[in-house]
Amino acid sequence: MSDKEQLRMGIIGSNGRMGNVLISAIKQAGHLHMGGVDKDDDLDALASNCDILIDFSAPAALEDNLDIAMNHALPIIIGTTGLEERHHFLIDSAAQDIPIMQTGNTSMGVTMLAYLVEEAAAKLGDAWDIEIVEMHHRHKVDAPSGTAKLLGEAAAKGRGIKLSEHKDSGRDGITGTRKIGDIGFAALRGGSVAGDHDVIFAGDEELMTLSHRAENRMIFARGAVQAAYWLSRQKPGRYNMRDVLGL
Ligand SMILES: NC(=O)C1=CN([C@@H]2O[C@H](COP(=O)(O)OP(=O)(O)OC[C@H]3O[C@@H](n4cnc5c(N)ncnc54)[C@H](OP(=O)(O)O)[C@@H]3O)[C@@H](O)[C@H]2O)C=CC1
Ligand SMILES: O=C(O)C1=N[C@H](C(=O)O)C[C@H](O)C1
Asked: What is the mean pLDDT of residues 177-206?
């Protein structure tokens, strides 16, 4: 890593699928892996030896993770998905004291995709229906994926609307016709799929799809480590991957 500062990084969710690839990504980038924690482990002890924390665990861990990061004045990357409104309030509040980067997807490709979706939604307008389709491995516990939500937010931003007022997920039964301006979500689960996302713009007699396919989890781990280095140089505040990559 030559002239770059070497950071001491700690992982929350260390024995998980992401935790495992993060260890390699931290080492490949020339930083120090100081260890990790899982449920019921002592994060306070780990935090005393770290410059930054990277969290890919579970929403139930978030409040304690933020408290400990604040107590140690450490920046924290939050990659955990399935977050609810109350979690976002906690993040906003903690971000007054420490730098926090939260995103549903740390990959370069999805970050670019979100940028493109926002642009397309702004230019195409309501005459094009937007549907977001995602597929993940059979072990995933939350739906729609954090990535699908962030792509939905990007589409809503492009259209100048609130996603919460136009989100249509989990259609089943006699649903009625599609409401103009809604943003639809469909979640597929199966096999070992690392993460596929399609944003479909369906117009009259034409259809455009913007897609991303994750071939493996290393893309998320590399992005998280890059974001950690960037975040360690920021003042307290809440950031996302578009801030990290300047998109
Ligand atoms: N933002 C992004 O780019 C990406 C986000 N993700 C998200 O990251 C999260 C983890 O994914 P994945 O690695 O596949 O999941 P896994 O289930 O494989 O791993 C989760 C890990 O978190 C640990 N954990 C659970 N509860 C706690 C807790 N309270 N405190 C500390 N550790 C805890 C688990 O430990 P134990 O076994 O002890 O319960 C487990 O080791 C998910 O929310 C997923 O959606 C995944 C990929 C990319
Ligand atoms: O759980 C996963 O595996 C993934 N979760 C993230 C999400 O919810 O979007 C990111 C990626 O798609 C893999």
From this structure: 98
Task: State the total domains in the chain.
Answer: 2
> How far does CA 45 lie from the centroid of its chain?
26
Judge whether residue 156 has pLDDT over 80: yes
DSSP letter, residue 59: G
Q: Does position 3 have pLDDT exceeding 80, yes or no? A: no
Are residues 195 and 240 part of one domain? no
Q: Are residues 146 and 101 in the same domain?
A: no
Residues annotated as catalytic (active site), given as ranges: 136, 140
Supply the pLDDT for residue 4. Answer: 78
Residue type, 178: R
N- to C-terminal Cα separation, the chain: 24
Best mutation site among 140, 197, 199, 213 for ligand 2, i.e. most ligand atoms within 8 A of its Cβ? 140
- Check pLDDT > 70 for residue 109: yes
Edge to edge, what strands does the sheet with 196-203 contain?
167-169, 183-189, 129-136, 196-203, 206-213
pLDDT band at 162 (very low <50, low <70, confident <90, very high): very high
Q: Which tokens belong to 32?
A: 């120090």
Assess whether pLDDT exceeds 50 at residue 22.
yes
**How far is residue 93 from each of residues 72, 83, 148, 193, measured CA to CA in Å?**
16, 15, 25, 35
- Say if CB 102 and CB 53 are below 8 A apart: no
Q: What is the CATH number of the domain that holds 186?
A: 3.30.360.10
pLDDT for position 207:
98
Q: Which tokens is 173 given?
A: 């039964």
Which residues lie with the beta carbon below 6 Å from any ligand 1 atom?
Answer: 12-13, 15-19, 37-39, 56-58, 60-61, 79-82, 103-106, 146, 220
